[in-house]
Amino acid sequence: MASVPSLASTLHQRIADALSAALPEAGAADPLLRRSDRADFQANGMLALAKKLKGNPRELAAKVVESLPVGEGLLMQEIEVSGPGFLNITVSDKAITETLAARAADDRLGVPFKEHPGTTVIDWAQPNVAKEMHVGHLRNTVIGNSVVRLLEFTGEKVVSRHHIGDWGTQFGMLIQYLIEHPHELDHKAAEDGPAVSGEEAMSNLNRLYKASRALFDADGEFKTRARRRVVDLQAGDPETIALWQKFVDESKIYFYSVFGKLDVEIRDEDIVGESGYNDMLAETCRMLEESGVAVRSEGALCVFFDDVKGPDGNPVPLIVQKSDGGFGYAATDLSAIRDRVFNLKADTLLYVVDVRQSLHFKMVFETARRAGWLTDDVKAVQLGFGTVLGKDGKPFKTREGETVRLVDLLDEAIGRATDVVREKAEKVGLSEQEIVENGEYVGIGAVKYADLSTSAARDYKFDLDQMVSLNGDTSVYLQYAYARIRSIVRRAGEAKPVAHPELSLAPAERALGLHLDQFAATVAEAAGEYAPHKLAGYLYQLASFYTTFYDQCQVLSEDNAPELVENRLFLCDLTARTLREGMALLGIRTPERL
Ligand code: ARG
Questions:
Q1: Its family (predicted)?
Q2: Spacing, Cα 360 to ligand 1 middle (Å)
Q3: Residue 200: inside a domain, yes or no?
Q4: Ligand 1 atom at minimal distance to the Cα of residue 360
Q5: Are 560 and 453 within one domain?
Q6: What DSSP designation does 77 have?
Q7: How far apart are CA 148 and CA 156, in angstroms?
Q8: Are residues 279 and 266 in the same domain?
Q9: What is the Cβ-side half-sphere exposure of residue 275, based on CA atoms within 13 angstroms?
């Protein structure tokens, strides 16, 4: 981890620096320092170093130990050489408290900015127009939102792109139907009273979608008219475009209502759907064809890959333009790359998209590389996520075998969470309004946390009972830990959180303190690897360390000396702030009272 220039470094960094200084002849050798159960830290770097210097690792380790300042009140209280030449290091209580005090003095809790921030364009939260949002869209929204927050927190410039599915042949059918049934998308609410709700918007679209599909399948003449309408749409015929826009607007009302429920902020200017690249498609194809990256094959413009073959052994190309002249998903994504690299000046392109689209992205990235649009200076990454499964371990479906509507799931989660909150509400003295609000924070938090606490690539089971459980690795557990700490700090009255490095620490205080010290490194790692689950795991452990501390160390006891109360309040307060900041980076709220 990079050192924190303006602040006291972490214990980890301070020890690593001391070890390097003790062995100047080693140059920049990594001491391979890590947390350990035997002592606080273990350094294993002597082994590789001895090999390099052609010496004996134990002797080298002993020499290092001799030259290091060790003792009561210093950074390192004890060092012993163990095994073939490991160093077991125990830090002093004073150093722990002092280091934490420096973190507490910083609004960012000591999390450094990246040394070389760049520009990341991240493609996330991309539902499809005139279609219901499902659990897959939950994932690309929740994971994307957390990655954006993590990256921004480390100083990266982040541009969001919501590549919504707002183009394609199905719009010919929808628009033609609307022309023949002109009042289907009108709603009373638009003229009098409040604007149409997201639910209504979706139910209108759904009804229209089903009706037009039925007509399309049953009536050959309608089918022909619908196909002709696609041509009008692609040609930019104003009447057709105006109707298409109606579908997009209606869908956006619905999308925003779901994003709102998910407590995720989406900015309108970041919604640049497939249609946003229409003007670039022909040029993209021309460039690919002229450079020979793409070739005509049976009328279609294709890119071939040595390692992409179908079950019959024949190559499966990426089709950039179909033989009828139509452009598809690949042409749009290739044009989007040009836009993001050359106009938005991205040096990282990140795509939060289902792993089932991995082959598509592999081919698209490779094509863009061959075309020279992606170079060594631009990194393209698909942050692929796995499937949401039902309790039976199969892809999540309703009993009727239909896709589960995201809204229904979220409502159910909020309902369950509100019950949980209500049960404890009287004791805490919550008003009805607070119960409702907390129910939303807890319910939505539960859904997000379940999604973010396993690595994105893995499938996970959607199990509401487990998600809203008060025990175990859930957001509710973390939210309660936070609220409990806040209540202690409130009850402390006159006593304030103040660090007292002169006090010795109980084992549970040390364990909590050492874990708190790792927050900055964890955030840097989670951001660098696009891995919110690493932060989630850290926060869960933090809450567990806190629980042990709380059981073993009385905070507000009459028997405690005032300094002890203050120092314990200091640990409480820093834990609460770390939980709050960490949860915010996951997009989860932490109510003050729960
Ligand atoms: N709309 C697509 C879906 O619902 C996801 C789009 C992903 N982004 C992209 N640039 N292709 O699956």
A1: Belongs to the class-I aminoacyl-tRNA synthetase family.
A2: 11
A3: yes
A4: 11
A5: yes
A6: E
A7: 9
A8: no
A9: 19
- Say yes or no to pLDDT of 195 above 80: no
pLDDT of residue 4: 41
Q: What is the mean pLDDT of residues 76-105?
A: 95
Mean pLDDT to the nearest integer, 147-161 = 98
pLDDT at 2 over 90: no
What's the CA-to-centroid distance between 414 and ligand 1, angstroms? 27
Element (H, E) at 552: helix 532-552
CB-defined site of ligand 1, < 6 Å: 123, 126, 128, 163, 165, 333, 336, 351, 353
Please give the number of the atom of ligand 1 that sits closest to the Cα of 353.
7
Same domain, 467 and 578: yes
Whether the per-residue pLDDT at 472 is higher than 50: the answer is yes
ipTM over 0.90: yes
Q: What is the mean pLDDT of residues 30-50?
A: 89
Residue 581's domain comprises: 406-585
Q: Helix (H, G, I), strand (E, B), or coil: what is residue 475?
A: helix
Inform me whether the pLDDT recorded for 3 exceeds 50: no
pLDDT at 192 over 70: no
Q: Which atom of ligand 1 is nearest to the CA of 164?
A: 1
49 and 127, same domain (yes or no): no
CA of 565 to the centre of ligand 1 (A): 53
Domains held by the chain: number: 4
With CA atoms as reference, report the closest residue to 464 among 424, 497, 430, 415.
415
Q: Which pLDDT does position 48 carry in this prediction? A: 84
- Residue 110, SS3 per DSSP: coil
Helix (H) or strand (E) holding 102: helix 93-104
Q: What is the mean pLDDT of residues 529-546?
A: 98
Reduced to 3 DSSP states, what percent helix, strand and coil does the chain have, rounded to the nearest 5? 55, 10, 35
534 domain residue, yes or no: yes
Please spell the DSSP secondary structure of 301-344, one letter per residue: EEE--TT-B-TTS-B--EEEE-TTS-B-HHHHHHHHHHIIIIIS
